[in-house]
Amino acid sequence: MTNDLLSDEHRILRDTVRAFARRELGPIADEIDRTDTFPPDLFRRLGELGVLGVTVPREYGGAGADLLSGVLIIEQLARVSGSVALSYGAHANLCVNTLCVNGTEEQRLAYLPGLCSGELVGALAITEPDAGSDAMSMKTTAVADGDDFVLSGTKTLITNGSIADVIVLYARMAGVTGARGVTPFIVERRLPGFSVSRTFDKFGHRGSPTAELRLDDCRVPRRNLLGKPNKGATILMRGLDIERVFLAGEPLGIAEEALALSIEYARQRHQFGQPIGNFQLIQAKLADMYTQIEAARALVYQTAVQADRGAVHKEAAAAILFTAEMATRVCLDAMQVHGGYGYLNDLPLGRLVRDAKLLEIGAGTSEIRRLIIGRELVK
Ligand SMILES: Cc1cc2nc3c(=O)[nH]c(=O)nc-3n(C[C@H](O)[C@H](O)[C@H](O)COP(=O)(O)OP(=O)(O)OC[C@H]3O[C@@H](n4cnc5c(N)ncnc54)[C@H](O)[C@@H]3O)c2cc1C
User: Fold this and answer.
1) Using CA of residue 364, residue 369, residue 370, residue 373, what is the dihedral sign?
2) pLDDT exceeding 90 applies to what percent of the chain?
3) Run of H or E residues at 12
4) Are 213 and 196 in contact (CB under 8 A)?
5) How far is CA 109 from CA 92, 149, 303, in A?
6) Does ligand 1 have an atom closer than 6 angstroms to the CB of 127?
7) Domains of the chain
8) Which of the residues 243, 256, 315, 325 is marked catalytic?
9) Fewer CB within 10 Å of terminal CB in the chain, N or C?
10) CA of 25: how far to CAs of 93, 251, 317, 327, in Å?
């Protein structure tokens, strides 16, 4: 079924990114994780590959492709390095796609070519120390002052935060409470008053930089306001729906890699005088892993196609809810298939488990995803 959704262009793109990831990331994926270091030239190489502006029209330097293409790219990157996949998603979807969909012609021309080539790195900042799941309670404030807005506050847990040149950053218009006051701005790291106050040491996705950002009376030109003042909640909610579909490609890729490694190991590893793949309890594990992955892939690809046609609120939440929880289970099963060797850092099973777990937390936790789906079902 999923093959029916893929055009020839989709297949070529998928195979090109797969080859790139195996060749360029395969040899360094463990090192990225172990040293917690993002390869400095990687965004430029992804830019040369033509994937950084996957959903951006060609006139701004993008590939002019659909959301499903973005899912295929992040899926293939995630098969080799979850860290690179996450940083790619924060750049290409959270920052670049949001800017492209909601920006003025002037903003698109100013930022998209550099972001698509990899000359500029992008991020998106919603989360604050006291505003995670309850994003609309954010406290970062924007005060209008002449031709500028003056921004003050703290954003935290921001992917690419310490390496980003351009950040789509949500603040609250001073004096406006609730969702109505939430407004996105295009913030550049070179602006006075902007700083990276902290970087985080993480359980997984090591190498994908996660940072806390400070805005101390940071003057952002009025022309960098994204969309209309006080209309940002709609941009944020729609952006999160698209993010959930796009990002669902990551746990899908991680789970696929876990299954591929498990099949290979089940064929090679001998116990009781035969390959462990001959044992039906091992076959049952592989069968369950395969079935869950195929179900997730169908759901994610179908939702990506649907998202290009209209709203996908509960559908997007369902796609990432199912795929993320599936990936954690599949990676733990893969570790089990590998026995004691799966528990060693010589093999990447531990990294896959650690990376998979984040996808149940970022872009709205599993709990919030269930709330979204449940509310929409009964409303
Ligand atoms: C590696 C990493 C990268 C990230 N990248 C970004 C990024 O690029 N940009 C960005 O803006 N943010 C980013 N985040 C932040 C992420 O989106 C938040 O961590 C997430 O939304 C949860 O918020 P929180 O951590 O404050 O948890 P909290 O909201 O404090 O939740 C704590 C627990 O309470 C539960 N909970 C909360 N509310 C409810 C409720 N109403 N009902 C039931 N349970 C509830 C949650 O599900 C969770 O289990 C990133 C986080 C991580 C770890």
Assistant:
1) positive
2) 97
3) helix 8-20
4) yes
5) 16, 21, 30
6) yes
7) 2-120 (1.10.540.10), 124-230 (2.40.110.10), 233-378 (1.20.140.10)
8) 243
9) C
10) 20, 17, 30, 21
CA angle 74, 78, 79 (to 5 degrees): 125
If we measure between CA atoms, which residue out of 118, 101, 114, 100 comes closest to residue 51?
Answer: 118
- Residue of 121, 133, 155 to mutate, ligand 1, most atoms within 8 A of C-beta: 133
Phi/psi for 313 (5° steps) reads -80, -65
For residue 244, pLDDT beyond 90: yes
Q: Tell me the pLDDT band of 231, cut-offs 50, 70 and 90.
A: confident
Give, as one character, the DSSP assignment of residue 56. Answer: S
Is the pTM higher than 0.85?
A: yes
Average pLDDT (83-88) is: 98
Average pLDDT estimate for 276-287: 98
128 is catalytic: no
Q: How confident is the model at residue 1 (pLDDT cuts 50, 70, 90)?
A: low
Output the six-digit token pair for 236. 């944020």
3 state SS of 231: coil
Question: Tell me, what's the pLDDT at 228?
Answer: 81
Give per-residue pLDDT as tens, 105-115. Answer: 999 999 999 99
Tell the residue number behind the tokens 């899912």, with chain if given: 71
> Is the Cβ–Cβ distance between 205 and 358 less than 8 Å?
yes
